[in-house]
Amino acid sequence: MxxxxxxxxxxxxxxxxxxxxxxxxxxYEVAAVLSSRSDLAELDGADLxxxxxxxxxxxxxxxxxxxxxxxxxxxxxxxxxxxxxxIRPLVDDAGAGAVFIPNFSLGxxxxxxxxxxxxxxxxxxxxxxxxxETKIDSPSGTAVRTAELIAAARADVGPVESPHVDQRARxxxxxxxxxxxxRRPGVVARQETILSGAGESLTxxxxxxxxxxxxxxxxxxxxxxxxxAKGVVVGLDSLIDIGVGRPARVADAAPVAEGGVPGxxxxxxxx
Length: 271
Known about the structure:
The protein is α/β, with parallel strands linked by helices. It is built from 6 helices and 11 strands. The protein has a 6-stranded parallel β-sheet, sandwiched between helices. Strands 7-8-6-9-10 form a 5-stranded mixed β-sheet.
C-alpha cells in the first residue's frame, strides 16, 4: 500500500531534500507540496504530513494534521519540550502519531547523546551553535534538544553552573544550559558543546557540510516511524540504539506562554 505524503514547506531547502527522499522511497508518493503560506485544507487526502515549514507556522500545521487524524513528522525547529507538551494531549486524544526530529543527521544525534552522557561529570556546560544567516529562529532545535538531554542526564547532580546569567551576552538559558547562536554566511550547521571542570575541558563538535547526504538516512528512518507512530516521539535517538548510554527521558514540561515571538520557544530558566 502506498503512503501518500503531504510536505509543508516543501519549497524550502529542507523540504526539497525531504521531497527527493520521499520520491525515491518504495511505498511512498508525494501527494501535495505546500509552502508555509498554503491553505492547510490541502492536507486532505494525505496519509502522512511532513512539516518543514517555519516555527511560526509549524504548530498550526501539526494541529491541522492531528485534527484530520493524520500522523505528522515534524522537522521544523522551535519545538522545545514545553511546546511539545501543548500538543501531546491532542495527539493522544486523536489516537494519532507525531514524530518530532530536531535534526535528521545521525552524526548530530550522536553528538548530542555523547554530550548528555558526559554531562553528569562536568559542572559547567555551554553550547555554541552556528547556521547560515537565512535561518530565522534561534536557538536551533538541535541546541534545545541537546540542552534538554543534558538537563535530564544531570537530574541527580543538579543544574549546570552558569554564572552571570543576568547578562544578555551570556546567551539564552535552556534547561540551565547557556546557548549562544551564530547566524552567518558560509555555514550549513555546526554545534559545539563545551563541558568544563576543574583543570580540564571536553568539546564535542558536529559539522554538517552537505545537507542532502547527511539528512537522507535520518529522513528515511523517520518516515517509517512517523507512518506507524502512536503518540508523541521525539528525536532520532528514540528510534535507534546509537550505542551511548541513554539519559533519563526528558520529562513532560508544563506548557509555557511563548509571548508571540516566532522561534523563541526555548524556555528561559535560572541556573
